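Reopening this ticket.

The earlier resolution said the output was attached, but the attachment link was broken on my side. Pasting everything inline this time so it's all in one place.
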Amino acid sequence: MFTAQEEIEIRQMLEEWRQRKPTVTVKMYSSPDNEIMVMPLLGRGEWTVYRDDLNGWVEAFPGIVVFQELLKAKQWLIDNPRNQKTARGIRRFIYNWLSRAQDRAPRQKLEPEDVIRKFNTSVLDELRKRNEQATCEALEGSMAGIIEEQE
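Inline output:
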């Protein structure tokens, strides 16, 4: 989806962002150990979401953009520390979160291209929220080039 250079730039940008906001740790792209993101647990623990977890949820919940819902669930856990889950209960929490999102979603099945487009859009929206406008414009330009190459 992205070139190696683009992934390096995105990781650097995320690392800079993490240093400004130490309470949030997001790994949005594949890393050597297959991590997608880290969810906070009760106390000081963290629970890692792996690509295999994400793929399973994407298959189980076809009507929603799972990655976007995971970001929402993560932010809810950060904003509600008294309601954070234990390592034993986090999977059930995520399943219930995704299930409710699926129940509220419009009754249409998303095509794979739509899911990819929505995923990319949600990543760009996240970057925009963090005042990374110049980087977003560069990413949009490179994504447009990638999409044109695929067509």
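Reporter confirms the inline version is readable. Residues 4-108 form one domain. The first helix runs from residue 4 to 20.
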